[in-house]
Amino acid sequence: MPGTARIGVDVGGTFTDLVLHDPQRDAVHTGKLLTTPDDPSRAIIEGTQRILREAGLTPADLHSIVHGTTLVTNTVIERTGAKVGLLTTAGFRDSIEIGREIRYDLYDLFLEAPPTLVPRHLRREIPGRLDADGVELLALDEIAVAREVTDLVEGERIEALAIGFLHSYRDPRHERRAGEIVRALYPRLALTLSAEVAPEIREYERSSTACANAYVQPRMRRYLDKLEADLAGIGFEGRLYVMLSGGGIAAVREAKEFPIRLIESGPAAGAMAAAFIAKLAGLDRVVSYDMGGTTAKMCLVEDGAPDHKFDFEAGRLRRFVKGSGLPLKVSVVDMIEIGAGGGSIARIEPGSGLMKVGPRSAGAMPGPVCYGRGGTEPCVTDADLLLGRLDAAYFLGGEMALDPDRVRRAFAEGVAETLKLSPVDAALGVQRIVDETMAAATRMHLAEKGRDPRDYTLIAFGGAGPVHAWNLARLLKIRRILVPLGAGVASALGFLVAPPATDMVRSHVGRLGRLDWSVVNGLFAEMAEAGRALLAEAGADPTTIILRPSADMRHVGQGFEISVPLPGISLSDADIPATRESFFDSYRTRFGRVVEDQPIEALSWRLACAAPGQDIRIRLGGTAAPASGEPTPRGARPVTFEGHGALPCSVYDRYALRPGMRFAGPALVEERESTCVIGPATQVSVDGDLNLVLEAA
Fold first, then answer.
1. Are residues 196 and 93 in the same domain?
2. What's the per-residue H, E or C state across 195-215?
3. Rounded to an integer, what is the distance from CA 361 to the centroid of its chain?
4. Domain that holds residue 589
């Protein structure tokens, strides 16, 4: 009998989180261990073996493992990818370096341009030309293709090749023919065609995406091959799946061919978990707040789904400055990511003498000072320990003891001494800085979407999220916080509840009243067939797949477009009025007004393909029958709050709480993977799904 259990694995910068769900036994188990940066698969194997032991299962009982990784992101940021060559249309060798010819900072005389992934000497021009309608103006020079790729492989020793020809989104025949020549000559060479990875208009972004995909492809293939081999070595015979940046589950083959689609793989899982939790709680306006050991991620979740976007900038030179990174045409969950995690290092900035926190992180090795693994610079986790938020003897359920004396010395001999503060005041400053940084970024993210944070509920998770959620909500004036059971590993839960899903796109430009609908319908039919095939490979039942069409549209003459839902995938002139109204609704939501007398054009046609996800609840062992009244604390300790000083806090065992219980802050609720800090003037209740619901006065 095949196994039924599934494991979700989230490899973060500091910790690797695991959630095991066994529907046959209606059991959920969680696990958390330090990430192994030198070989991330080692922590996956160790964590899988341990969680199986705890659940009383064997690898043969596993149906599948769903995995997310930051490997693609780290490769791009750290510039540790493959040596890549590029074949492009004659005359367009420098397109990826010229970009949009826009300075992301007009007033910086020493502005550093975003570095390209392919240096100029590895970019080769190939004669051959199609026009914007796909008509061949000049035949592809096949001899030049063979000559240039031979020189790149044998002379320059490239490890991967990208091919990006002009107008290939309209007709990819030249790219495909060049790809056939390359594969015939060098069948083992990693190859990316821009028309396959990003079949969209705008050659700069399309070529940049193709180069980035080629850049990370060899490393990602090696990683996934090794992971599959290591899992097979412990007896795993099920399927390995991966999380895409858009929040869908895909087969390993797609990850190996298009690894750039995993650029936001790990963070997307947290957003999917928040969307799932929001649905269960009946919340339609939520800010997802995921704070781990290295970063904090915020995402808007409305009507049960996180916001999406179809472009992304990777490896920005300046974290919040648009245009300072590599543009990618990939589907991603729309979120902000801040270098504010438990391992973010506090330091005194030379020159100003001011304390800064992050984005540099101590990671898993050496980690914060309190881990006792060689860290010497105090981090956010060290500050939380010093302020009383964490129990030194109960970190990771007591599996990992923390050293408060070492932390106190590190503060006293470091930032506290420089600033002439006590260690506790310096730790309070660390907390103040990191929380204000997160609050400012969240305000900006919501303001750009025309949203008011006071209208939302904060769902807090990640190892450090519940520790900082109360103060972050206070700064944002959010009155309700929801903290799920197993908050410290909620991102790993996101892998298990996320649906098999993928986003397809094709570009075909035309005015709304002049479109050839047979061409558009043909594109949708092609995308639907490809999407169903990918989801079937990812384990979806083809009969349950839902297709959601949309188009990127704008007024003629505008520079950029907006996403517009469409009435179906088989369109005709009869659908024009409904499509116009859908465009105006989307335009009004974004800009607050519409211009009805200007013609409308579509640039790209999109099809979101998704199958239903699984309904999984993290429950307590044994009964979780409703209870009333206030739970009995298992102890108390003082916690320092900004503006209040040290307050005595009751400490509650998370696993002893039952639905219907109520208590008031200040208090602490401790579970194995995280601690929820509850400030004064806050009422707490436990709902039917064992979520903590914090209501501020």
1. yes
2. HHHCCCCCHHHHHHHHHHHHH
3. 18
4. 501-610
For residue 181, give every residue at least 6 positions away whose Cβ sits within 8 Å of its Cβ, in sequence order, or none.
142, 145, 146, 149
- Which pLDDT band holds residue 64 (cuts at 50, 70, 90)? very high
Q: Contact at 8 Å (CB) between 659 and 627? A: yes
Q: In 672-690, which positions are buried (b, 16+ CB within 10 angstroms) versus exposed (e)?
A: bbbbbbbbbebebebeebb
pLDDT band of 1, cuts 50, 70, 90: very low
Specify whether 36 is located in the same domain as 138: no
pTM for this model (two decimals): 0.89
Instruction: Fill in the amino acid letter for 560.
Output: F
The confidence score (pLDDT) of residue 52 equals: 94
Q: Which two tokens stand for residue 631?
A: 């739970």
Residue 603: C-alpha distances to residues 278, 533, 554, 564 (Å): 34, 25, 8, 11
Whether the CB-CB separation of 694 and 471 falls below 8 Å is answered with no
Domain count, the chain: 4
In a domain, 353, yes or no: no
Secondary structure (DSSP) of 455-504: GSEEEEESSSHHHHHHHHHHHHT--EEEE-TTGGGHHHHHHHHSPBEEEE
For 496-518, the pLDDT digits (tens) are 998 888 999 999 999 998 999 99
At a CB cut-off of 8 Å and minimum separation 6, what does 314 contact?
Answer: 73, 76, 77, 212, 263, 325, 326, 328
Asked if residue 211 and residue 85 are part of one domain, the reply reads yes
Alpha-carbon distance 285 to 215, whole Å?
Answer: 38
Encoded tokens for 100: 């949009």
Q: Determine the Cα–Cα distance for residues 694 and 677; give it in Å rounded to an integer.
A: 10
Pair (51, 170) in one structural domain? no
Q: How far is the CA of 477 from the CAs of 464, 587, 630, 685, 695, in angstroms?
A: 20, 29, 27, 20, 12
Q: What residues contact 495, with CB distance under 8 A and at least 6 apart?
A: 8, 9, 10, 19, 66, 67, 68, 243, 249, 269, 272
Distance CA 491, CA 66 (A): 12
Q: Which amino acid, one-letter code, is at 88?
A: T
Residue 93 in any domain: the answer is yes
Query: Coil, helix or strand for 190?
Result: strand
CA dist 376 and 67 (Å) reads 32
Distance CA 379, CA 366 (A): 11
